[in-house]
Each structure stands twice: as C-alpha cells, then as structure tokens.
From TrEMBL:
One biological process term in Gene Ontology: sporulation resulting in formation of a cellular spore
Upper taxonomic lineage: Bacteria, Bacillati, Bacillota, Bacilli, Bacillales
Gene3D superfamilies, per the entry: 3.40.50.12110, 3.80.30.30
One Pfam family matching this protein: SPL
One Gene Ontology cellular component annotation held by this UniProt entry: endospore-forming forespore
CDD domains found in the cross-reference section: Radical_SAM (cd01335)
EC category: lyase
Molecular function in Gene Ontology: 4 iron, 4 sulfur cluster binding; DNA binding; DNA photolyase activity; metal ion binding; S-adenosyl-L-methionine binding
Function: Involved in repair of UV radiation-induced DNA damage during spore germination. Can repair thymine dimer 5-thyminyl-5,6-dihydrothymine (known as spore photoproduct (SP)) by in situ monomerization of SP to two thymines.
Co-factor(s): [4Fe-4S] cluster; S-adenosyl-L-methionine
Recorded catalytic activity of this chain's protein: (5R)-5,6-dihydro-5-(thymidin-7-yl)thymidine in DNA = a thymidine dimer in DNA
Protein name: Spore photoproduct lyase
Assigned EC number: 4.1.99.14
Originating species: Alteribacter keqinensis
Amino acid sequence: MIKPFMPQLVYIEPGALEYHLGAELKKKFEDLGVEIRKTTSHNQVRNIPGENHLQKYRNAKSTLVVGVRKTLKFDTSKPSAEYAIPLATGCMGHCQYCYLQTTMGDKPYIRTYVNLEEIFDQAEQYMSERAPQDTRFEAACTSDIVGIDHLTHSLKKAIEYFGNSENGKLRFVTKYHHVDHLLDADHKGKTRFRFSINADYVIKNFEQGTSPLDYRIQAAGKVANAGYPLGFIVAPLYIHEGWKQGYEEMFKKLDAELSDRARDDLTFELIQHRFTKPAKRVIQKNYPMTKLELDEEKRKYKWGKYGIGKYIYQKDEQEDLKETLNSFIDKYFPNAKLEYFT
Ligand code: SF4
C-alpha cells in the first residue's frame, strides 16, 4: 500500500462527538465525501456491506469506527512493555498470519478512540503506581497505529504526552511508511519507533495492504534522523525457499539506509512464525487461497494458556533461524541489541 489509508465507510458513536477529536474527524470525513453512518456502540457495528463473509471481511477492513473507549483498564503487554495503551483497535492490513483475526473475531473493522485525555489520565495513574521506575506503554498491541495516524494524530499526541512525562516510555511497531507527520513530534527520546520488517518473499505473499519493504526502510531512516530511538521486529520469521538469502538481503538494505546515529541505540526483536488451531481455521476462512504453511505435522507443539497450544518450528529449525538471524545482526549491526528470540 503506497497511499495512506482512507476509509470507504465511517461509523460514529454519538458520544464521540462530545470530544474535540470526534467532531474534528466527522468534519474531515464530511469534507472528503466519505459516507458517514451512526452507530450506538463501537462494539456492535452492524450492516457492514457485503453479500458473504469474504466481502464483509474486506469491507470491514476499510471501515473506520470513531468511538469512546469505555474500558480504561489497560492490558499488560509482556515482554516488550508493562501496559498496552488503547488508542485504536483493528487494522486495514491483510497480513494473513495476523493474530488480530482471531482476537477480534467478528469485529475486523478499525476503531479509533477519541477520549484521549481520559486514556492519558489512566496512563498517568499506572505511571505513578510504579514511580520512580519507568513504565513502558505499547501502542500497537491491537492495531497498526501508525497506519491510521495521519487521520487522527492520536499517536502523535501520545508521543508528545509521554515525551513530557516523568516516567513514561512509549513504543509501537508498524508496517506502514506514512510517518512524515510524526517527524516533528516532541518525543524527547522517550518513544521507541519500531518497524516490522521481513524478507521480500514474506511481504509479497502474506502482507497485502501494507507498505513495501523499501518504503518501510526509508521511513525508518527518516525516523532515526528525527532522533527517535529505533527498533525492528523481524516477524514472523518464516522458512521458505531461499530464506537465508532473503533475510540477508533485508539486512543489506537496512545497512545501506541507516546512518551512524541510528545505529547507536538500535534494537531487534525476533519472532518465529507460529499458529494455533483456532487461528488456522480463521486464516483459512479469511484467506482461502493462502500459501501460508499451516501443517501441524511439520511443527513442534508448544503447550499454551487455556489449553490452546501453538505450533512452532522444530527445534533444529528454530536453532537455524536464531543462529542465522543472529549472525546477520552481528555482521551488519554489531552494536545493536537483540532483545529476544521467541
Ligand atoms: Fe496485523 Fe500488523 Fe498486518 Fe495490521 S499490519 S494486519 S496489525 S500484522
């Protein structure tokens, strides 16, 4: 996706119009001529157009719902942060492996929350409970927040909010390159801006509706030049024909783009591909032509919470992935920090 996301249909909760951002978004979409409908609750949006499941699923992913976040209890977000800060839920991307398909069930539409002050007040409470220790907030647990931020600027406000906080840190990850409006945010070095990257094969086959690798890498260069601490999540690590070469190409492109400054404080997180049985069913329903390898027989079973285990790579494959990726990080970014491989 080269152009920034623009919803085909917008739903607004009446309560959202009592907030400045809600009213501003209504005006923006009216001016743009986007169809606007009312919904009583952002949790129960009905009548998304489409004659069958696939059409409805696709239309939902281009539908934006403007609502008020009522649950202000934040989820935890281990291992990369203490809490998930809820600015939005849902994503316009079509990554076939994405876990949001399972966690969001029949609500694949995108929700943006306009009561930012209340959300920030809640964050303040969590920070004061942990002070003087830092508290890290992850803004991309349930959405790709950068992908919609050119419309809402909620993320930009959060970056500035945590920039001016005593003990708060913000982090998020994105597959989109639409970062220009975030470059002048007053981040004070307290936001780690991460990009999700992968071998070209994985992006082309399984990440429809997201930015191409070269665009993400260029955006990472801009973000680093704007002084943000930078990070990369390489996920899902996926074994395919020529994967070692594919991943090395990716590191070479990064190496060519990043300035010395970007390398001073650089992190990598590595996550191997995994799936659960319920996720496999949802993926095959939403993407019936998927080429994603989902054969339980080929994988190792790892017991999980609530009896739902996941299928990960066999031990020797995991070792190979870990060693190969580690060797590329050592070769191209010897000063970077590898946060985890999972
Ligand atoms: Fe899921 Fe991220 Fe892809 Fe969006 S961009 S569909 S959140 S993996």
